[in-house]
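User: Fold both of these, please.

Assistant: Here is the first one.
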Amino acid sequence: MTKKYGMFLSALFCAFSVGIGVLHLALPDRAWSEDENRTLAKRPDLTAASVADGTFMTDAEDYIADQFPGRDGWTGLKARTEQLLGKSEFRGVYLCGDTLINRGDEPGEQAEKNLGYVSVLAETAEVPVYLGLIPTASEIWGNRLPAGARVPNQSAFIQSALEETGVSGVDYLSVLQGRAGEKLFYRTDHHWTSLGAYYGYTALCEALNEEAVSVDCFTPETVSTDFNGTLYSTSGIHWLTPDTMEYYVPEEGVTVADPQESGMESLPLYDRSYLAKKDKYSSFLGGNRPVCIVKNPNAATDRKILLIRDSYADAMAPFLSQTFAEVHLLDLRYYHLSSAEYARENGVDGIVVSYSVQNFVTDKNLAFLSR
């Protein structure tokens, strides 16, 4: 390398660094990343205390990284470069052809605690309690994973969980395994599709000795063809074809109530305003709510059920409304009162603890089941 060429590279690097710095100062900070679907770090306050304990430098690094000019483009370029180098795992997400599959966490101490909380609920509740653990794409579509991919054995955990708690199970596993060739999960998101949720509904109906409505009774409505979900956001893989989202259950006659939202007597079964946003999955029931009650006076039965659940239930609730007159949903991230007491006060006929395996083994909020 000649001296002049070295000086040229140094000058080019300095110009690039100065240019990035100027852009960083000139461009307004972003509060939200649509691609990553998360809140971005804010400019930290410079105080003597934050400098002394080291938090200022840590927060400043996060701020610079999050507000880096063109961050979304650089993130996608990094993932594309790593793919060309032969990498198949990106921040805990496997690239499997045209599908992204989350690796997931191995069950550990938190999973054991959560099983104990389910047992406590079964002892205190005055109605039957069921445990439904939903296997995710890494289990059902394991044949799509790249060679050598290491994922938890969800089937084994589901079996051991039912043996340990002694409660009745909702067999989501068998019904999804039997339909593995169908579009059960989104390709860019960790949730199941409306079709996958339908099969989950049939499993829940079977566990509660009810007959599920045939899938042939529904006419799917395509509501979006540009859904890029959480795995798209997490992995940085932004070049796959977006997912298609469908609604199966018509809204007529079905009402959704949020008892904790004042001034709102009823809400839509589908909040279509989310279809214009990044988080399209929240269009089911309008996203995260501490308490949600789906009612249908024309349901096949007059039974009331309580689902203590994660967000997978949002896509399943429309189907459940066709069989059960009232479907109560509690989200323990926001509802911290006694679930058993809620069941008594609302006259429900059964309680289903319904979680994806990935969420169940890590969620610390299940501790509230023991209240």
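And the second sequence with its predicted structure:
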Amino acid sequence: MQIEKMLEYNENFVANKNYEQFLTTSIPNKKMVVFTCMESRLVELLPKALNIENGDAKMVKNAGAIIRKSFDSIMKSILVAVYNLQAEEVVVIGHHDCGMSCVDTKALMEKMRSEGITDETFNALEYSGIDFHKEFHGFETVEESIAQSVEIIRGHPLLPAHVLVHGLVIDPHTGKVDIVSIDKEKAK
């Protein structure tokens, strides 16, 4: 198991005080929230490509950098960062070649069934008002998805008017960033 190796490494990391190079406060230096995809290729590439150092930004992630509901956990995290952690800008960053762009919800459901999830479970979800296909559907283009997430954040009734919200797309191979939307209306 990888967790055992990770815990052993951590023990040495702490004993050798390797954490000291990462000490910072909980307030982001750049007063920014970055909401991006959980993509493993972006773990180091995205911060390096955008000059984000440890302590510079609050990082919030999910599959596809998708917000579909105004009061989901991502939006709550963004609002806490704005109100309690002094964030003044939100940057939504999707990426090309994203796995959420090609989710076949029927195939996903079948894979879940093959791992032991029963029809009764899917029926219970449906009975509870959860549309599996709607919940797991990805997007057609990353640009449209990022624009949708940006609009949900910008239009949120609890987001202060002065908070800037931008949308970007990064290439996970080169780190090149393309602009989807820059919040120029409120830019200083």
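The longest helix spans residues 2-15.
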